[in-house]
Protein backbone atom coordinates (compact mmCIF):
# COMPACT_ATOMS: atom_id res chain seq x y z
CA UNK A 1 0.00 0.00 0.00
CA UNK A 2 1.25 3.48 -0.88
CA UNK A 3 2.01 6.11 1.68
CA UNK A 4 -0.81 8.75 1.63
CA UNK A 5 1.63 11.55 2.46
CA UNK A 6 3.93 10.55 -0.39
CA UNK A 7 0.97 10.32 -2.78
CA UNK A 8 -0.21 13.78 -1.70
CA UNK A 9 3.30 15.19 -2.25
CA UNK A 10 3.37 13.70 -5.75
CA UNK A 11 -0.02 15.25 -6.55
CA UNK A 12 1.11 18.63 -5.23
CA UNK A 13 4.31 18.41 -7.26
CA UNK A 14 2.40 17.47 -10.42
CA UNK A 15 -0.01 20.35 -9.84
CA UNK A 16 2.92 22.71 -9.32
CA UNK A 17 4.52 21.58 -12.59
CA UNK A 18 1.25 22.11 -14.46
CA UNK A 19 0.89 25.57 -12.90
CA UNK A 20 4.43 26.50 -13.94
CA UNK A 21 3.75 25.31 -17.49
CA UNK A 22 0.53 27.33 -17.56
CA UNK A 23 2.38 30.42 -16.35
CA UNK A 24 5.06 29.98 -19.04
CA UNK A 25 2.38 29.55 -21.70
CA UNK A 26 0.59 32.69 -20.52
CA UNK A 27 3.85 34.65 -20.49
CA UNK A 28 4.57 33.46 -24.04
CA UNK A 29 1.07 34.48 -25.16
CA UNK A 30 1.42 37.89 -23.52
CA UNK A 31 4.77 38.41 -25.25
CA UNK A 32 3.30 37.41 -28.63
CA UNK A 33 0.31 39.73 -28.13
CA UNK A 34 2.65 42.59 -27.24
CA UNK A 35 4.66 41.99 -30.42
CA UNK A 36 1.47 41.89 -32.49
CA UNK A 37 0.22 45.08 -30.84
CA UNK A 38 3.52 46.87 -31.49
CA UNK A 39 3.50 45.74 -35.12
CA UNK A 40 -0.06 46.93 -35.61
CA UNK A 41 0.78 50.28 -34.00
CA UNK A 42 3.67 50.68 -36.45
CA UNK A 43 1.36 49.88 -39.37
CA UNK A 44 -1.22 52.38 -38.14
CA UNK A 45 1.46 55.06 -37.73
CA UNK A 46 2.73 54.44 -41.27
CA UNK A 47 -0.80 54.55 -42.64
CA UNK A 48 -1.53 57.81 -40.81
CA UNK A 49 1.67 59.32 -42.19
CA UNK A 50 0.65 58.23 -45.68
CA UNK A 51 -2.83 59.71 -45.25
CA UNK A 52 -1.36 62.98 -43.97
CA UNK A 53 0.88 63.13 -47.05
CA UNK A 54 -2.13 62.45 -49.30
CA UNK A 55 -4.13 65.21 -47.59
CA UNK A 56 -1.27 67.67 -48.03
CA UNK A 57 -0.95 66.73 -51.72
CA UNK A 58 -4.68 67.19 -52.21
CA UNK A 59 -4.55 70.59 -50.50
CA UNK A 60 -1.75 71.62 -52.86
CA UNK A 61 -3.67 70.43 -55.92
CA UNK A 62 -6.86 72.16 -54.79
CA UNK A 63 -4.91 75.36 -54.12
CA UNK A 64 -3.34 75.23 -57.58
CA UNK A 65 -6.73 74.55 -59.18
CA UNK A 66 -8.34 77.46 -57.33
CA UNK A 67 -5.45 79.72 -58.31
CA UNK A 68 -5.85 78.76 -61.96
CA UNK A 69 -9.61 79.16 -61.76
CA UNK A 70 -9.20 82.61 -60.22
CA UNK A 71 -6.74 83.65 -62.94
CA UNK A 72 -8.99 82.37 -65.73
CA UNK A 73 -12.04 83.99 -64.11
CA UNK A 74 -10.18 87.28 -63.79
CA UNK A 75 -9.10 87.11 -67.44
CA UNK A 76 -12.69 86.41 -68.56
CA UNK A 77 -14.03 89.32 -66.51
CA UNK A 78 -11.33 91.60 -67.91
CA UNK A 79 -12.16 90.43 -71.45
CA UNK A 80 -15.91 90.97 -70.87
CA UNK A 81 -15.23 94.47 -69.54
CA UNK A 82 -13.10 95.17 -72.60
CA UNK A 83 -9.88 95.53 -70.68
CA UNK A 84 -8.23 92.73 -72.67
CA UNK A 85 -8.64 92.68 -76.46
CA UNK A 86 -9.63 89.41 -78.12
Structural class: mainly alpha
Q: What's the end-to-end separation, in Å? A: 119 Å
Tally the beta strands: 0
Task: Give a quick account of the main beta sheet: strands, pairing sense, barrel closure.
Answer: none
**Which residues form runs of ≥5 with pLDDT under 50?**
none
Strand residues, percent: under 5%
The count of helical stretches stands at 1
- Helix % is over 70%
Give the C-alpha Rg.
36 Å
A few lines on this structure:
The protein is an all-alpha fold and 86 residues long. The chain has 1 helix and no strands.
Word description of this protein:
The protein is mainly alpha-helical and 86 residues long. It is 90% helix and 0% strand. The chain is built from one helix and no strands. It has one helix spanning 4-80. The longest helix has 77 residues, at 4-80. The mean pLDDT is 93. The chain crosses the membrane at residues 61-84. Keywords: Membrane, Transmembrane, Transmembrane helix.
Which key terms come to mind for this protein?
membrane, 1 helix, 86 residues, transmembrane helix, transmembrane
SSE order and pairing:
Elements: H1 4-80
Amino acid sequence: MEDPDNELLLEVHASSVRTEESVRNLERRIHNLQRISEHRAELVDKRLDSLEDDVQSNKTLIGAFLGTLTAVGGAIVSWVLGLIPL
